[in-house]
Amino acid sequence: MTAPRLQIDLNKIYHNAETLVARLSKRGISVTGVTKASMGLPEIANVWLQAGVSGLGDSRIQNLDTLRRASIVAPMVLVRSPMLSQVDQVVALTDVSLNSEVEVIRKLSAAANTINRIHGIVLMVELGDLREGIMPELLEATVAEVLRLPSLVLEGIGTNLACRCGVSPDDRNMAELSSLADSLEATFGISINTVSGGNSANLDWALNCADTGRINNLRLGEALLLGCEPLHRQAIKGLHTDAVTLFAEVIESKEKPSKPWGEIAQSAFGAVPQSNDTGSIKQSILAIGRQDIDPCGLTPPSGIVILGASSDHLVVDSGNYSHQLAVGAEIPFQLNYSALLRAMTSPYVTKDIMRTPMTRHLAENAQSSCA
C-alpha cells in the first residue's frame, strides 16, 4: 500500500459521534461536527450526519465548498470570522457564520441582500481566552447593528475557549454566556436560538456540570475523530482513540552513534540539537517529515523512540522494538490533533478510508437522502 498514509476507520468515527451526540442530547446540547481537521472529507461528514450531528462547521470556505459539491445536505456553518474578501462565497455556501467584527457583518448583509438570501449570524463573545470575540460590555451595540441590517438573522451567540491561552470552560464563564443570552432577549425582545458554548474542550464541563444553563450547542471535531478531550488530552470513556492511524515507511535502517560529531550549529528548523552519548543505537529513518506531520504529536509503538525530524525525514531509535525495522517496513503511529491536522492537510499523505458493510450502508442511505 501507499505510504505515508492515514488509515481512517469510519466505523469508529461513527461510534464516537453517535456516543457523544447521545450523551450531549440528554443535557439539551446539539453537536456541530467541525470538518476542518479532515479537510471537509465528505465520507466523514456523511458518517457524522448519520450519527446525529445537527450541522457541519469548518473554518475554511474551501472545505465547505467541497461538502456542497459532494451534494451533502446539512446546515453549514463557517466557524471562523469571514474574511472581507470572501463574503460573497460565505453567503452563497453557508447558512451561518461566526462573527466578531461589525464591518464584516455589514458586508455579509450587502452580499446576502444581493442574492436575495438570508444569512445567519452568531456573535462570538470574548470570555477570557483572548482569541476572537466581542467584549461583553460591547455586545448589545453589536446586536443592535445586526438587527437593523437587511438579509441577516441573529441566530445566537457563542464563545471559544482553550484554543489560544488554554482557558478552561467552567461554571463561571458558561453561566456568563447564558446570562448574556437572557439579557439580550430581555433588552431587544428577541429569541436567542443558539448559545454555542465552545469546542471539544467543553465536554468535561458539559457532561458533568450540575446545570448547563442556556448552552445548547457545541462545535466538536477533535473528540469525534480522536476520542479525547483537549484540556488534558485524556481519552473519553467509551470512545475510540485509534480511529485514525498514520503509517510511515522505513527508508534507512542502520546502527549509528547516538551522538553527532563535528561543530554543532542550528538544525534545519532553528534548534540546537541536544544529544546524550549512549553508544551505538539502531537508528531508522521513515519517509515522512515536518512538511507532513507534527513530530511532537506522534505516538510510536512501544519500543520506538522518536529522535527528531527534518522536512522529509523522521528519525527513530528502534532498539527496543519487538520487530526488526527492515527497509520497506511500515510503522503505525497514533496522532494528536496537531499531527492529524497537518497530515490531513498534506497532499503527500494518502487518505485510506476503511469502508465496512456498516459504513457502506450509511453511505448508501446518505446518497439516497440526497437524491
UniProtKB/TrEMBL annotation:
Q: Which GO terms describe its molecular function?
A: alanine racemase activity; pyridoxal phosphate binding
Could you list this entry's UniProt keywords, alphabetically sorted. Isomerase, Pyridoxal phosphate
Which Pfam families does this entry report, sorted A to Z? Ala_racemase_N (PF01168)
Q: Which cofactor does it need?
A: pyridoxal 5'-phosphate
Question: What are the annotated GO cellular component locations?
Answer: cytosol
| Residue stretches making up the Alanine racemase N-terminal domain | 8-224
Q: Does the keyword Oxidoreductase apply?
A: no
The family database entries (InterPro entries) matched by this protein are listed as: Ala_racemase, Ala_racemase_N, PLP-binding_barrel
Indicate whether Isomerase appears among the record's keywords.
Answer: yes
Name of the protein in its database record: Alanine/ornithine racemase family PLP-dependent enzyme
